Amino acid sequence: MKRKYNDMKTFRNISFIISLICMISCDRSGIFEEFQSSTPWEFHVQVFSDDNKTQPITDVAVKIYKTAEDRDNNTNIFLSGSTNAEGKAIFTLKDFEPGLDGEKSKGIYYIKAEKNGVVKNETTRYLLMNDGHTHQFIVLK
Length: 141
Description:
By secondary structure, this protein is an alpha+beta fold. The protein folds into 2 domains: 2-32; 41-139, Immunoglobulins (Immunoglobulin-like). It is built from 5 helices and 7 strands. Strand 5 and strand 6 form a beta hairpin. It is elongated and about 85 Å long. The relative contact order is 0.20.
């Protein structure tokens, strides 16, 4: 009986070592970089006229600021755009950081959406700038 126990213990140890070697030897280099470069980052500000977010508004002036004070005083506009037929103003990582270094652009931004004298101020969540599309929804009424 003791020999059977030792054989099982030896088998478990060898299996563990082989599994460990397989895991360590896997090449994971470049996987995140490939994914990141294939999914470009965009910031979508979408403006609606209703609380249900079913009625997009076109031609809304969207301005992005780095500080709340700049937004409130309408000074030092960082980025600006206008909404399209879907009510979206789209900004890319290149708009935020021409050198495409997302680390430099991470953070919170301040938005002003305006059309026909109606203004709505918003604050973004913390933008990571790493991949995919980040959406900010604004109801302007």
